Amino acid sequence: MSRPRRRAEKPVLSQELVVKTALDLLAAEGLDAVSMRRVAQALETGPASLYAHVANKEELHELMVDHVLAFGPFPEPDPARWVEQAKDLLRENVRALTSVPGIAKIAWAIAVPVGANALQQAEAMLAVLRAGGLDLKRALYAADALWLYAKAFAYEGAGWQHGDIDLAEQEERGKRMVEYMTSFPPGTFPNLLGAGEHFTEETARERFEFAIDLFLSGLMRVQDGS
Amino acid sequence: MSRPRRRAEKPVLSQELVVKTALDLLAAEGLDAVSMRRVAQALETGPASLYAHVANKEELHELMVDHVLAFGPFPEPDPARWVEQAKDLLRENVRALTSVPGIAKIAWAIAVPVGANALQQAEAMLAVLRAGGLDLKRALYAADALWLYAKAFAYEGAGWQHGDIDLAEQEERGKRMVEYMTSFPPGTFPNLLGAGEHFTEETARERFEFAIDLFLSGLMRVQDGS
DNA sequence: CAGTTAGACGAACAGCGTTCGTGTTACGAA
DNA sequence: TTCGTAACACGAACGCTGTTCGTCTAACTG
Questions:
Q1: A196 vs chain B: nearest CA distance in angstroms?
Q2: Which DSSP letter does residue A2 get?
Q3: What is the nearest nucleotide to A10, using C1' and CA?
Q4: C-alpha dihedral (A208, A212, A214, A219), degrees to nearest 10
């Protein structure tokens, strides 16, 4: 049954191990470090060895994303609390996609998530929305939009949440931005000039809640008007 | 004033020309073809020549995105029509980000858009939202969410709109997905199983309108409750 | 006409994803 | 127990990538 190790100390390779090692590497050294070569190096082997367990880098990426989406259990859809349930699911998804810096960026490169866990997340969200009285089409459209936004938020937010993005460079960009805007006649950018202070790490949660609250309260009004 | 060409036939290099060539290459051969080497090749020169006009590939990417965002004019904010004006701005942005296949993907790699045109787009949207009675903070949060969603939609939608994504492979993925879901007891994926038909190219516009309509009608209700 | 400088560009570096061919191991059958 | 086989491990190589260095040329300035 069990096919033990080649040489006593080295753990036998497996898809699970490759994926976990890649995630460890991502967490420890960032997105650029996750190359087939570096993952193989972390496993003390050559790059070719990985291809026995993973078709290519793209599949490895998909497996990594699906791995962080492995959580549950999912709530029993409750028509009385469906809005809060939907929000919880979204919050959990964002948490998962920001749990490892860089994983959200990888998630964006996957066109349609077909991983086992992604499908379960989707079905859970659909069940909650349908419990709210939405027909299938509306539930699908809403889930699509919400999932899209959550992924987008996770991607943007994850940057400065960890050391992934160079803070100094970001500061520099902000300065250049203000410089550019103030080089125009006053009143050209009346609203945008005061924007910087509102987009900090502290307001991230607030912005997220603002968006999903607005969207879901819109859904509430539409639920019976089908 | 004018520094004419080195040798009579070859047009003199410039940042503008480099960016346009890169966009042409992107349109003609897809994202993978846009490497510094290939762009240089299209300009009949070596890769090192580009670095006199562009700091690195990332800056080239930003310039490409900002180039497709160069459109206007922007509407005079009208408190009576602000919702429709906001929608128009969003539609135009999506159109721009899908006008060249692959440009949306590039746009996602840019953390905070600081290009001149991106800033003007942002200011225009903010002006419209404020005309709708939103305070600065709400307008910023809303514009952020809307812009995020539009970018996400453009990215997802652009795939099968052009030949960028392999249609056969996408079909294959759909099949694997259904296979996986039907391998479970019936009733495990009651909602997701019927999803495929709702996510075609034909329904793209409908899904987009559904999402922004929901969000903006939510904003309408909130505009005076500040 | 001389001096300076901005731009063009060939060559090279380190790293990438992936493939090929060969080695090695462990299991099932005889 | 011995042999055949199939799966996995993996070194080496291919063609590509972004970027830098040093050189060389051409055009503007004084």
A1: 10
A2: -
A3: D9
A4: 180
Contact B145, B167 (CB under 8 A): no
Cα A117 to Cα A99: distance, rounded to the nearest angstrom: 16
How far is residue B3's CA from residue B12's CA, in Å, rounded to a whole number? 8
- The closest CB to that of B148, out of A119, A149, A174, belongs to A149
* In contact, B152 and A149? CB cutoff 8 Å: yes
- Residues of A in Cβ contact (< 8 Å) with B112: 170, 173-174, 177
- d(Cα A12, Cα B44) in Å, to the nearest integer? 51
**Largest distance between two CA atoms of chain A:** 76
- A142-177 pLDDT, tens digit per residue, is 999 999 999 999 998 765 544 445 667 777 788 888
The length of chain A is: 226
Q: Is the CB of A149 less than 8 angstroms away from the CB of B145?
A: yes
Closest CA to A58 of A106, A5, A128, A10: A106
Residue A96 to residue A154: CA distance in whole angstroms: 9
Q: How far, in Å, CA of B216 to CA of A144, rounded?
A: 17
d(CA B215, CA B212) in angstroms, rounded, equals 5
Profile chain B (226 residues) by mean pLDDT over runs of 10 residues: 40 86 94 94 92 94 96 93 97 95 91 87 96 95 96 79 59 82 89 88 92 94 64
d(CA A79, CA A223): 11
pTM score, whole prediction: 0.89
> Cα–Cα distance between A149 and A127 in angstroms, integer?
19
